[in-house]
Amino acid sequence: MNIARSFNNWRKYRQTVNELDRMTNRELRDLGIDRADINRVARQAANF
Question: Which residues are in the YjiS-like domain (predicted)?
Answer without folding.
Answer: 3-38
